[in-house]
Amino acid sequence: MSKHSTIAKELFTKGYNCSQSVVLAFCDEIGLDSETALKISSSFGGGMGRLREVCGAVSGMFIVAGMLDGYSNPLDRVAKTEHYRLIQSLAMNFKDENRSIICRELLGLSVDRQSHIPEERNEEYYKKRPCAELVEHAAKILDEYIQNRKLEEKIMMKIAVASEKEMVTEHFGHCEGFMIFDTENNQIVKSETIANPGHKPGFLPNFLADHGVNVIISGGMGGGAVEIFNERNIEVIVGAKGNAKAAVEAYLEGSLKSTGSVCHEHQHHDECGE
Question: CB 3.0-4.6 Å disulfide test: which of 82, 139, 210, 222 passes with 274?
Fold first, then answer.
């Protein structure tokens, strides 16, 4: 039993509908406040407003998946295709275990129109309905997906090095540019250099984060920049020297460790990101 599946099942037994139970359980992963999560998922309970169509737990899975890896550009066919592949994969995982993703089939109900009035939640209700277990299973599928997703993120990384003429520079904000290395399975597969866009305090950490950087390597760095990188979940390695590519290879091998070196020289106060 996974962490979120336990929470989702408990939420259902407290009276939340099947979809709400799944989405609310994953608020920590998708960055939604509880009230927004509950309102977004409220219409999907009972197989979409008690219509007994797609199971609310399954719809909850889809909502969480959309928040994690949905697409926003209507012209991006690749992203749309990949997201639909993900949704169908989640649905099949649920169906393989439960034989269906349709509420009425899961509950053994007829196709007659259902009342819009929800049943009273009592001991008898929980005895005759498999909904708590279905909610639990949907959350377990999501937990497995998220775990695999995090493993893939560790395997594929984008590492930036504050550099000058392919060498690690001492001052992060004062560098000539950033060498960006794409890595897969601890191997460099691609590299490019982007020019330093400027020395505005606090700008560079967000600039690199927006470029998808996971790790930043530099000789030194101001405390303000370090804080922003930490807020953006980007690993900071300072105290590095020598060739930029060699520094990345050392990091991938596990031999390059941060020394905690922070720039204190007055003339580089702004350039280092403070």
Answer: 222
- Residue 273 covered by a domain: no
Phi, psi of 13 (to 5 degrees): -70, -10
Q: What is the DSSP letter of 221?
A: B
What is the chain's mean pLDDT, rounded?
A: 91
Same domain, 12 and 70: yes
Interatomic CA distance for residues 268 and 258, integer angstroms: 20
Does this model's pTM top 0.85?
no
Q: Count of CB atoms within 10 A of residue 41's CB?
A: 24
Structure confidence at residue 111 (pLDDT) = 74
Check residue 274 and give its pLDDT: 43
Give the tokens for residue 87: 């949704």
Give whole-number Cα distances, 120 to 54, 100, 117, 125, in Å: 21, 25, 9, 7
Helix (H) or strand (E) holding 168: strand 167-168
In this structure, is residue 51 part of a structural domain? yes
> Residues 36, 110: one domain?
yes
In whole angstroms, give the CA distance from residue 137 to residue 98: 9
Inside any domain, residue 88? yes
Grade residue 110 by pLDDT with cuts at 50, 70 and 90: confident
Query: Which of the pair, 138 or 111, is modelled with greater confidence?
Result: 138
Is residue 137 located within the same domain as residue 198? no
Ramachandran class of 175: left when φ > 0, alpha when ψ lies in -120 to 50, beta otherwise:
beta
208-217 mean pLDDT: 94
Residue 112 has, within 13 A of its CA and on its CB side, a CA count of 4
Planar angle of CA 55, 150, 91, nearest 5 degrees:
20
